[in-house]
């Protein structure tokens, strides 16, 4: 495990929240990334399916510096992973298992690899992935599905993604998810040019949920 991968694993378990930005307006997407970080959400993923995502990544990296966690999401191919890394991404996120995962591992970049079934989990566990993204979590039953998966895989670092609102985030974290990935319930329309003040309010709500989970985990460990 590389130093960067170890650092990401620690950050994921500490912060418990990854924001997912997918916008139709590159300028708004950039402002959304910056607002999230300023609002206490330091783990941010920019989906490659958004408008000029690589440009957003480059601008955000230049503004935030080398130490910030800045991910590229919806990485499907090895070329996607290469272009994302060249644009400044130091985290790769995929919707499933494929060449993007292998390329990220080859580059010693942290990767949250998409899984859905137990077969996926077994395959991903040998892929070198840092965390396993359950996607789309809500379509499979939400927190109940995480609970079912954790029965045979109690030590796997799961990150549920898809339809995660604040209430679901609280439940996922209580059930043992290392973190949650949150898109529209957190970002809303900000990346399309929407209200950044509303984004700040939603960020405060989600960081409070993550903070409560962090505190509960620390209390449990101290017992």
UniProtKB/TrEMBL annotation:
<comment type="similarity">
    <text>Belongs to the KHG/KDPG aldolase family.</text>
</comment>
<keyword id="KW-0456">Lyase</keyword>
<protein>
    <submittedName>
        <fullName>Bifunctional 4-hydroxy-2-oxoglutarate aldolase/2-dehydro-3-deoxy-phosphogluconate aldolase</fullName>
    </submittedName>
</protein>
<dbReference type="InterPro" id="IPR000887">
    <property type="entry name" value="Aldlse_KDPG_KHG"/>
</dbReference>
<comment type="subunit">
    <text>Homotrimer.</text>
</comment>
<comment type="pathway">
    <text>Carbohydrate acid metabolism.</text>
</comment>
<dbReference type="InterPro" id="IPR013785">
    <property type="entry name" value="Aldolase_TIM"/>
</dbReference>
<dbReference type="Pfam" id="PF01081">
    <property type="entry name" value="Aldolase"/>
</dbReference>
<keyword id="KW-0119">Carbohydrate metabolism</keyword>
